[in-house]
Amino acid sequence: VQPEAPVAYTTNALVNQACDIIHSELSRSLSVAEIAERLDVSHNHLTRQFRAAFGETVVAYIARQCMRRAESLLRSTILPI
Fold this sequence. Notes:
Blueprint: H1 13-24, H2 32-38, H3 43-54, H4 58-76
């Protein structure tokens, strides 16, 4: 069971693509370098664009989304911890 993850969209297409990757693969470990490589940009460029759009790092965003997903699973399913 995978609850719908809230996806925050911006006017920045690169950041939106990064968010799509993060949300579609939230169940596995993702690195900023891997996301940047998939988007064919540098790690630094992705980090700067992400911080400009959301005011936080890619790693912080991923962690926050993981916590939201975990909270949702704990509240809405009977899956064991």
